[in-house]
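Subject — a protein and its fold
Encoding — discrete vocabulary of local shapes:
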Amino acid sequence: MKSYFLNLFKYHEWANKKVIKGLRESEISDEHIINILSHLLLAEITWLLRLKSAKYDNNFWIELNLTECENLSIKNAKQINEYLNSLSENDFNNKVTYTNSKEIEYTNTITEILTHLSHHSSYHRGQIAREVRKLGKEPAYTDYIAFLR
């Protein structure tokens, strides 16, 4: 399980870098697109803090600029990797209790939260790709299989 998630989040690091690089190269500064990217990255750190049972702010709709997104992406990748490396194989079934943005308490396993985080990020990268296409530009190709190739 550990090696699976380490690889999966290497993919996330790669995909986030490709999206940011693609936005820079296409000179896209569309506020809506950057806000989706900001949310994706702020949610990553929020979920990581929940996993660590650390104090966190549920405000993951802060408007960052592209440079701030890039810096947060680098920071997130490092912290997620450190967190994953700190886990043993048995830890993935451990339960974590947290409150969501509506202050409702939930409990899920580490595996469930990491899986959600993966899907959440991919979903929003897909939204970004759609919005980039609407602007007549070609979005970054971030399919998992491309990362593996």
About this structure: The domain at 2-148 is CATH 1.20.120.450 (Four Helix Bundle (Hemerythrin (Met), subunit A)). Residues 36 and 127 are 8 Å apart (CA to CA).
